[in-house]
Design a protein that fits this description.
With about 260 residues, the protein is an alpha/beta fold. The chain has a single domain, classed as 3-Layer(aba) Sandwich (Rossmann fold), CATH 3.40.50.150. The chain has ten helices and seven strands. The chain has a seven-stranded mixed sheet, with helices on both faces. Strand 1, helix 4 and strand 2 form a beta-alpha-beta unit. Helix 9 packs antiparallel against helix 10. The radius of gyration is 17 Å and the shape is globular.
Length: about 260
């Protein structure tokens, strides 16, 4: 079994089990499994500053919410890939319901295996690269997939410099995350050949989103045990962010 297969099995049986995905969607809103839901996705897609008809790769497309927005509101043609079979199965069902198969293609795939030379005007990703250890290889693949002057935009979980607290270390290890500091991310993006790199520490915004999520969770009409479990998970996430160990970054760059 390859590393990619092991990772897919881990994702689909742990963080992205069908029940976990539905819980994320309940918090973030229909079709979304990333912080800020539809509202933030719309804001970030606009930051790509791409023209109607642009071709975009959504890496780790999740339930497809951002891809659907790009197609419907921005006029983009979108390829979405995700390593979670559960995510893709659910996203394809949603795509069929949205009836935009002519503008959005969703595939089960590993972004480390991308072989699409100069295919995209933009690449977009939300909190996905934390799952990937070989970030040098990742950004080389993304760089190669962009057309000259193509734009990269992504958010991701980041971290403070070590040493970390025992609690944060256990969390990272238990999730099999591979976190970078913001400066480390900037360096690896530059080494891959990107220019005009912008690195933004959005941890304060992440904290604000988490507070809003807790309010949303309180209003969910779900079983009390499930609600309490969600609240506990979000409070722990909030504590890690407020401690300074857990960072959240927004990054943009351009292919030379």
């Amino acid at each position: 079994m390859t590393v990619a297969e092991v990772t897919q099995v881990f994702l689909d049986s742990e963080q992205y089990s069908s029940n976990s995905i539905l819980n994320y969607e309940a918090v973030y809103g229909e079709d979304f499994v990333s912080p800020g839901g539809r509202t933030l996705a719309r804001e970030l897609i606009a930051r790509l500053r791409l023209k109607q008809g642009a071709k975009v790769l959504d890496v780790g497309c999740g339930l497809g919410g951002s891809a659907f927005l790009m197609a419907r509101e921005f006029g983009f043609r979108v390829d979405g890939i995700d390593l979670s079979a559960n995510m893709i199965e659910m996203a394809r069902s949603k795509l069929k319901a949205h009836k935009i198969e002519d503008r959005v293609c969703l595939e089960l795939g590993n972004c480390l295996e991308l072989n699409r030379q100069r295919s995209y005007d933009g690449i977009y990703s939300r909190d996905v690269f934390l799952h990937i250890q070989d970030k040098a290889r990742l950004f080389k693949k993304l760089h190669n997939a962009l057309k000259p002057q193509g734009r990269l935009l992504f958010t991701d979980y980041c971290c403070s410099e070590k040493p970390w607290s025992e609690d944060f270390s256990r969390y990272v290890e238990g999730r099999s995350y591979f976190l970078n500091t913001l400066p480390e991310y900037t360096e690896v993006i530059s080494d891959a050949g990107f220019c005009d790199i912008q690195c933004n520490d959005w941890t304060d915004r992440f904290i604000d989103i988490l507070h809003g999520d807790l309010h949303t969770i309180s209003g969910l009409e779900i079983e009390q045990a499930a609600k309490q479990k969600l609240k506990l998970g979000w409070r722990e996430k909030l504590a890690r962010a407020e401690s300074g160990f857990h960072k959240w970054g927004l990054f943009t760059a351009i292919r030379r």
